């Protein structure tokens, strides 16, 4: 291990020495100290090393339980490539990902062991599950696994698949360390910070607060399921300082938080990411938390921007300025276009598709984000939507996010999604889907919206949907909405 920690695995060991008795992980009524976690990671790594796993891909199927994170840190200490997978997937989909990343082993928590065994059978790989046999095996280990190199693979995160076949996004240990440093700085993470870990392990968003907590030797407070009242109580009881939630979670939190409650007073930074914030919800969060509230726009691939509450008051349509280390620009010569970026925490590439996703700008390699936006003179970014979602009607570009934001200003609309459908005259025309919080006639809502939209943005119709299909981070799956309600 180097004198200066260059990997998250080294930080776990350093925390075990410098903060041995401070809690590293808090799960329900259990707490694991940094010294215990560091020792545990060494033993798991030794077990994996005896199986020749250094440098190989190890998949992990688990929820937000203590065992899952013990296994994660053990895999990282072993110098293997961590591949967390979603237990929401079917066995055949998991087997496809296992084959894609070349996984040599699948680790699984008790709750997902049956699914893991079936996926492992299909992929032809060994499965090791949580339980007494695992504990006995690591208890016997006393060897020391080689340390991973900073340039080696940290892990592979599979995309949500909202834009087609999921891609494996590869990051190095150095990239994840750089992300930890950037988020610790910009999220203002204190040495005794406590991060709420609420989103699943296979989501890159989970690392927004997890990595800086490890960097500073803080604590991870695990929540295995989302219940807004229970989460509020957990934050208050454990004095959580930092939390990342998606907008659908935040909406439920503010809906049930009692007036005058002080249970969220410990929060120093509450981050929203994963999907756009509806303007009314954003306004409520800014009113409640002020500068303690932040919105982060970013890609798993490794570029991001951040805006805090005080800035939102002045620039309500912006997602902020680049996160520390990120450089953003608009491709081409027009003020509105595809956002491209680069950073020290950028991915190495896509698994098996190293040349995809890059733009060459003046001989430099930049990440193509697929998002359309504008950057003002002060460096603030405004999103206009995804390139694939852009609607071209009568030769004019329509950005669904602009229409969605307008729909969400109606008091009866909780969330909105807009897609383009074929039109014999215009080529394409927009239609809207809404989740409502109170009764409203769709014809009345359509008239209300079209009175406020530009002529080329006007909606053909609006359809009410009880519940949007969403990915793990709460982002509406527009292709599924369109297929279920339009393409029939």
Automatic annotation (TrEMBL):
Any GO MF annotation of the entry: acid-thiol ligase activity
Keyword Ligase assigned: yes
PROSITE patterns to which the protein is assigned, alphabetical: AMP_BINDING
InterPro entries, per the entry: AMP-bd_C (IPR025110), AMP-bd_C_sf (IPR045851), AMP-binding_CS (IPR020845), AMP-dep_synth/lig_dom (IPR000873), ANL_N_sf (IPR042099), ATP-dep_AMP-bd_enzyme (IPR050237)
Residue stretches making up the AMP-binding enzyme C-terminal domain: 403-475
Location of the AMP-dependent synthetase/ligase domain: 14-350
Keywords: Ligase
Name used for this protein in its record: Acyl--CoA ligase
Source species of the chain: Rhizorhabdus wittichii
Record lineage: Bacteria, Pseudomonadati, Pseudomonadota, Alphaproteobacteria, Sphingomonadales
